[in-house]
Design brief:
This protein has 149 residues and is mainly β. It contains no helices and 21 strands. Strands 3-6-9-12-15-18-20-21 form an eight-stranded mixed sheet, with no helix packed on it. It has a six-stranded parallel sheet with strand order 2-5-8-11-14-17, with no helix packed on it. Strands 1-4-7-10 form a four-stranded parallel sheet, with no helix packed on it. The chain is globular, with a radius of gyration of 15 Å.
């Protein structure tokens, strides 16, 4: 089931993936059985694995890779340039979200980090450094709250 008022250009979208209204997808790859909510933008070169859920108002710029079974909550923002400028040279700094991770609402992920397998990033956090596998991180900047078993 696909929504209305979308821009979907040059994308590979897997079987069973649902894309809602007012979504902009450019040159990205989205796996099977994903759910992409309204008002999401996924830019060129982004790779999304299978069985992922990306909630409303999420922004995934070029350079982001999301593995299988990842949850990205509403209003999660990824960056892709450590020194952004309106004009001049810039380079994409890659970010990786490993399988089974959950990033809760309102989180900002600064480029160049890896969010570990099965980890949880608490709502409103700012991720500035790598997140280990199987931990819960919260805060600004995000720090380990506890380890998952």
């Amino acid at each position: 089931m696909n929504g209305k008022y979308q821009i979907i250009e040059d994308c590979q979208i897997g079987k069973g993936t649902i894309i809602r209204n007012f979504v902009n997808l450019y040159g990205c790859t989205i796996g099977e059985n994903c759910k992409i909510a309204s008002f999401v933008e996924i830019q060129r070169g982004v790779k999304i694995g299978n069985n992922c859920k990306i909630e409303a108002f999420a922004y995934l710029p070029s350079g982001v890779t999301v593995e299988d079974n990842v949850f990205i909550g509403p209003s999660v923002t990824f960056t892709n340039d450590k020194i952004p400028r309106a004009v001049g040279e810039w380079s994409i700094v890659p970010t990786l979200v490993k399988k089974g991770a959950s990033i809760c609402a309102g989180t900002t992920v600064i480029c160049g980090v890896t969010i570990g397998e099965n980890s949880i990033v608490g709502g409103g956090s700012v991720v500035t450094k790598d997140v280990e596998d199987n931990v819960v991180v919260v805060g600004k900047p995000a720090k380990i709250l506890r380890r998952l078993k």
